[in-house]
Specification:
Subcellular location: Membrane
GO cellular component, one term: plasma membrane
Structural class: mainly alpha
Order of helices and strands: HHHHHHHEHHEHH
Low-confidence stretches: none
Number of helices: 11
Helix content: 55-70%
Mean pLDDT: 78
Number of strands: 2
Strand content: under 5%
Radius of gyration: 35 Å
GO molecular function: monoatomic cation channel activity
InterPro entries: Ion_trans_dom, NALCN
Keywords: Membrane, Transmembrane, Transmembrane helix
Length: 303
């Protein structure tokens, strides 16, 4: 058994689909810790209440020696069975047992000393438990699993940034971040963007690349950039997130985009004048050399 389990874990690490399923299960358990804890406490409370209310009830069709409230352990097993929806209404009807199908004599007038049930208690107990546990907590747990599954298991066809893209970005980051610190300088982060290939590839001469570089410089005021910072910049530029942002976040994002566009435009104009000045200086230098009688064959000016 241990060998089979170890073999399955080994295969799940190599196969993408199994790996996604394992990650989904692990992350769901971590994120649902408090839901599971509250669910266990709730079942313990209901099991103890069931022992008090129905611990002495006479066996019936569904309430028998295998499923009963004699002990708290038996009650827990029975409640777990109830969460699956198996014959919970029959168990409820058995707990509603009344005369003449049970023993209630003048010598035992107390409810706690008879083997009869109670209709009102059974209705409130089982219906409240089934609604709270099955319809609320179990559906919350399923919702967490579905959310994590949609997060981890995405393909190139149904998402703009897939797991393959994220893996490519991580591999490119690792090429630059050799010591695995998780942070890079602004210059190294720009190099990561320049080295990206595939669907996340950005032309180093495009306006989009200039915008991304400007945003990276503004992130930490020129200090080191983390892995998630660079990935966030890339995701903002690759995916339309306007619908998923709150109003305040959307306004902040629009203001940041306006600042970046303004700074990129100023830098572009400055670079254009700088290149124009260099070309003019180059032409004047060539003209000066020609007037001085210096041969230009095989000569290239270095400025």
């Amino acid at each position: 058994m241990v060998i089979i389990l170890f073999r399955f874990l080994t295969l799940s690490g190599k196969h993408d689909t199994l790996k996604m399923l394992m990650l989904t299960v692990v992350m769901s358990l971590l994120k649902s810790f408090f839901i599971i804890a509250v669910l266990i406490l709730l079942m313990i409370s209901y099991s103890l209440a069931g022992v008090i209310l129905f611990g002495t009830v006479k066996y019936g069709e569904a309430l028998n020696r295998h499923a009963n409230f004699k002990t708290s352990f038996n009650a827990m097993i029975l409640l777990f069975r109830t969460t699956t929806g198996e014959d919970w209404n029959k168990i409820m009807h058995d707990c509603m047992l009344s005369k003449p199908y049970c023993t209630e004599t003048p010598a035992t007038p107390n409810f706690w000393q008879t083997d009869c049930g109670n209709s009102a208690s059974a209705l409130i107990y089982f219906i409240s438990f089934y609604v709270i546990v099955t319809f609320v907590f179990l559906n919350l747990f399923i919702a967490v699993i579905i959310e994590n599954f949609s997060l981890f298991y995405s393909s190139d066809e149904d998402s703009l940034i897939s797991n393959t893209d994220l893996r490519d970005f991580q591999l490119t980051w690792n090429l630059v971040d050799k010591y695995r610190k998780g942070v890079l300088s602004v210059r190294q982060a720009k190099l990561v963007l320049r080295l990206l290939k595939g669907r996340l590839e950005v032309d180093s001469g495009s306006l989009l690349f200039k915008h991304m570089c400007c945003e990276i410089e503004k992130l930490r005021n020129g200090c080191d950039v983390s892995f998630h910072d660079a990935l966030g910049v890339l995701a903002y530029r690759s995916v339309d997130i306007s619908r998923s942002l709150q109003l305040e976040e959307l306004l902040e994002r629009e203001e940041l985009e306006y600042q970046i566009e303004e700074e990129v435009a100023i830098q572009t104009i400055r670079d254009w004048f700088t290149n124009l000045r260099k070309k003019r200086a180059e032409r004047e230098w060539i003209r000066h050399l020609e007037q001085g009688g210096i041969p230009l064959a095989g000569w290239c000016p270095v400025l």
